[in-house]
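Why does residue order matter? Because the sequence determines the fold. Keep that principle in mind as you read this record.
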Amino acid sequence: MADEGDVLTDLNLDNNAATGNGADTQPVAGVISQYVKDLSVENPNAPACFQWQSTPNIDLQFNIGATQVNEEVHEVELKIKVTAKATEGDLYLIELAYCGLVGLRNLPEDHAHAFLYAEAPRILFPFARRVIADATRDLGFQPLMVDPIDFNGLYLQQLQRRAEEEAAAGGMQPPVGQA
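Structure:
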């Protein structure tokens, strides 16, 4: 009679076993570390701005970029720029570059691209949001709680728009071999 240890070694519990040569062929993607790369916080009209009564207009812009660090690591950069202006003048300006080192291995190119430009920003965003909230609070204003962003939806919109632009550009070019 076999003991439990022998029974477990006979069972293949790993459905995603590596190839026979021992190579690591499983797709892997994940955030290795994250950090503030650059932060600029300005309160140009303090202390006068604390007496202003008009409602501020807040403009929020963000951008996503990815840079390859080495064969398996990319730096994903989430840039956020927030400006608050009242009729009397500028209240504050915050510029944040929040980054994450992302490891990718054995991913098809389209999956890697989607991870870098949709999933990684989604993972980084709550931490960047906290930095923005802390910065506005430290400036002497109510913490700015940036609404959640649907990075996957925005990524799919960008892909759709690029496909439409390529189709439109392709329709204007004459077919090969014809004048």
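The first strand starts at residue 28 and ends at 42.
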